[in-house]
Write a structure and sequence with these properties.
about 210 residues; alpha+beta; Alpha-Beta Plaits; five-stranded antiparallel beta sheet; Polysaccharide chain length determinant N-terminal domain-containing protein; membrane; transmembrane helix; transmembrane
């Protein structure tokens, strides 16, 4: 009676798992060693912030007295937040960033955010960058594009830039040891797959000769 002999596919799968696990382990150990010798990294970040207002203000002059009627724009703010995420707005903002030579410094998905403030009639657009000038320019540009797209989409005029970005706020992003180890492990897994892929291509190339 002959023993069980795994198929060639199972052998290749086992080899793949073995290589990937070994590569991940090696790079995880390298990450641990690197993070142990190197303190947690601190990288400066800059944020440009713009406030968008949706409040409707009406002024009347009654009996020699100025009367101001104020109505909140809380019902409009969620529509603006949706407009910020719309493909047409993203495309228009990408084109504007490219024209302003900011496309390589800012990523819309990661660096441009918006959130509604405690005052329901206000939305803050925030742009984060490693360069203060790019953060300020990007925030003002994103606000202008978003306001224009919102007016075109809903035909509402009760939206305006209340406070533009004039200077960037400096913050710090801390890279922890755990993050370094996690990144090293991921790199190891990726290199393991790349090694298997390159090895298979080489074997096919040699066999075809």
């Amino acid at each position: 009676m002959t023993g069980f002999k795994p198929s060639q596919t199972l052998q290749k799968l086992a080899h793949l798992i073995k290589v990937v696990c070994c590569s991940a382990l090696i790079f995880a150990l390298l990450g641990i060693g690197y993070s142990w010798r190197r303190p947690a990294g601190v990288a400066p970040l800059y944020q440009g912030k713009v406030l968008i207002s949706f409040a409707k203000v009406q002024r009347q002059h009654i009996a020699e007295t100025d009367v101001v009627h104020y109505s909140s724009g809380g019902d409009v703010a969620p529509l603006f937040m949706d407009t910020m995420k719309a493909p047409t707005t993203v495309k228009a903002l990408q084109q504007a960033l490219t024209k302003a030579n900011l496309a390589t410094k800012l990523d819309i998905a990661n660096n441009v955010t918006s959130k509604q403030q405690k005052d329901a009639s206000l939305v803050q657009i925030q742009v984060t960058s490693h360069q203060p000038k790019a953060a300020v320019q990007g925030a003002n540009l994103a606000a202008r594009v978003a306001v224009r797209q919102f007016k075109q989409r809903y035909h509402l005029r009760r939206v305006r830039i209340l406070v533009p970005a004039t200077q960037a706020e400096k913050q710090f992003r801390i890279t922890s040891r755990g993050e370094l180890i996690l990144k090293s492990t991921f790199i190891g897994i990726l290199l393991g797959f790349l090694w298997i892929f390159a090895r298979e291509l080489w074997q096919v190339h040699v066999t075809s000769k």
